[in-house]
Design a protein that fits this description.
Layout (H helix, E strand, L loop, with lengths): L17 E2 L18 E2 L2 E2 L24 H7 L6 H20 L8 H7 L4 H30 L2 H20 L3 H20 L1 H8 L5 H30 L1 H22 L21 H5 L17 H4 L12 H6 L1 H4 L3 H29 L7 H6 L2 H27 L4 E2 L8 H20 L4 H29 L4 H47 L2 H17 L1 H4 L2
């Protein structure tokens, strides 16, 4: 049992461990699965309620396990997969466009430096680093607010503010104005960069999340890369402010989609927890039979579309706002959060930094590329993202299910980490190869081959880290991703501030080999995380300090 994941002496089912197949493992002989809702032979985790307002209440479930009463009442009232996938597609696209706002100005950093007589590091700091830093800082407040008032108001307001910020950037005529606009843009970006992952857990079951997270990963990766490709041409044709004018037009299209399609996905009433209530230390066991109290979900009326369009719905939770703001800080003590934070932050930061540093490398001899040509160097990276992000998403679902079936039907979140077997060698070789190739002035083709290898690695590392932490701490997914995003933002800010200076001091070979070794060291944390992950989850679940968070 475990396929390399060590069993825990205290808990057979720590949070995150679940039953996906019909096979009865010895640790589950006290829990009947005959009356649980399923998708084929996969038990749905979490179990949906019978309410027509529950986003997990969809028509894919195995009908033989449902009562006739449920069928008659809910046949026309479930959340359709078309609706849920539409929400996910719009949020993923909007998140990708928002993420592109940071690096899209990279092809014009040299132009801004000359136009406003500012140093390269100062321009990189205020044009790229500041937006990331303020996005990461503000997520503490938006995540807490989303838990209390729901995600919809933050998504809609974020889109509106981003539209305003791009209009501001279109007419900015000084470096201080551009710098202030980028800070405002960073604040406005926070919800669309950090609330999408928790929306995935609102809408989809454990075995469905990998593919949807991969869609989000495709949009993020292509946003970072395609943004630079397109903006390179825009900068040459229309100047720096032209990139913000085009972005404003895009957000003009996103805003009505956000308002009319992105309804509230937070479901606040208790779900059927029959399958979870026997798990020691689980949230279900702490609430006992809460799901048996109150009104019958079957009698709950379906909320009308007009009602769903409300921006503000009042408080959806009794949680304290400021407690939610500080909650991400102690979450960094959770081993799964530590691992996911370091891996995701490292891989994403270096993807961003390749875009920033390659501007100086490719703009100088022997390459002498123009801003548009520098932007075009991102094409192979973007293609790699488009190809391997869906593949990583499929593998993030398929491999854990395959492993679970060979583990007596027991799913462990650590099975997600198998994807790091692909991410680690590709990123390490890619960094070393690019450092040597650019240092020796090898052909542009060789440089692009090596940096594309890291681009291939990113979706696998992102899938492994994000899906792992969601599986381990589903109810804390908002705050956990705040922690992850803030560290990513802080690391990216520091890297963008000192990156050009380090490149000038050490040269590309020494710098990128150093990055390769740092990234490799962080990635190797996968080994203890996989082996001891179940025991660590049990330790967190049993810890009094963790229960107080």
């Amino acid at each position: 049992m475990g396929i390399g994941v060590l069993e825990d002496r205290h808990m057979t089912r720590p949070p995150g461990t679940s039953k996906l197949g019909e096979e009865e493992g010895p640790a589950f002989d006290t829990a009947s699965t005959s009356d649980l809702k399923k998708d084929g032979d996969i038990i749905l985790v979490p179990q949906p309620s019978d309410s027509p307002n529950d986003p997990l209440n969809v028509s894919i479930i195995d009908l033989q396990h449902l009562s006739l009463k449920w069928l008659r009442t809910n046949e026309e009232m479930q959340w359709s997969m078309v609706q849920k996938n539409s929400i996910m597609l719009i949020l993923a696209f909007s998140s990708g466009v928002t993420t592109s706002l940071g690096p899209m100005i990279s092809p014009g950093l040299v132009i801004i430096s000359k136009q406003y007589n500012a140093s390269p590091d100062m321009v990189s700091t205020f044009m790229v680093g500041s937006i990331l830093l303020f996005t990461g800082a503000v997520t503490f407040f938006t995540a807490s607010g989303a838990n209390i008032w729901g995600k919809r108001p933050f998504f809609v307001i974020s889109t509106l503010l981003l539209l305003i910020s791009n209009i501001w950037g279109t007419f900015a005529d000084s470096f201080p104005s551009l710098a202030a606009m980028r800070i405002f843009q960073g604040i406005a970006s926070a919800p669309l960069e950090t609330l999408v992952t928790s929306t995935v857990s609102d809408l989809f079951f454990v075995h469905q999340r990998g593919l949807r997270l991969s869609l989000w990963g495709v949009m993020l990766g292509t946003g970072v890369l395609l943004g630079q490709i397109i903006s390179g041409y825009i900068i040459e044709a229309m100047g720096i402010t032209g990139t913000f004018a085009i972005s404003a037009l895009i957000f003009c299209l996103i805003l009505p989609l956000m308002y009319f399609i992105i309804v509230e996905t937070t479901y606040t009433k208790p779900r059927n927890t029959k399958f979870d209530e026997k798990r020691p230390g689980s949230r279900a066991s702490s609430i006992g039979s809460m799901d048996l109290k109150g009104d019958d979900p079957l009698s709950e009326p379906k909320e009308s579309y007009k009602s769903q369009l409300r921006i503000f719905r009042g408080r959806l939770s009794d949680d304290a706002f400021w407690k939610g703001v500080v909650k991400p800080f102690p979450l960094i003590c959770f081993p799964a959060v530590i691992f996911s934070t370091l891996v995701y932050a490292s891989f994403f930061c270096w993807l961003l930094m390749i875009g920033v540093l390659s501007v100086n490398i490719f703009s100088a001899p022997p390459y002498n590329l123009t801003p548009a040509q520098v932007g075009l160097t991102n094409i192979p990276l973007a293609l790699a993202t488009l190809i391997f992000s869906p593949l990583s998403g499929w593998m993030a679902d398929a491999i854990p299910v395959w492993m679970a079936k060979r583990n007596g039907g027991v799913f462990e979140p650590e099975f997600r980490l198998v994807l790091m077997l692909i991410a680690i060698p590709f990123s390490t070789v890619g960094f070393i190869g690019f450092g040597i190739a650019s240092s020796k002035g090898l052909s542009l083709t060789w440089c692009l081959v090596w940096i594309t290898m890291h681009s291939i690695a990113v979706p696998f590392a992102s899938q492994a880290s994000i899906s792992y932490v969601i599986d381990c701490h589903t109810k804390d997914a908002n705050q956990a991703f705040v922690t992850i995003n803030f560290v990513k933002a802080l690391l990216s800010f520091v890297a963008s501030t000192i990156g050009n200076g380090l490149l000038a001091k050490f040269g590309p070979q020494t710098l990128f080999i150093g990055i390769a070794m740092l990234n490799l060291g962080i990635s190797l944390l996968t080994i203890p995380s996989y082996i001891y992950g179940k025991r660590l989850r049990s330790w967190v679940a049993r810890s009094e300090w963790a229960k107080k968070i």
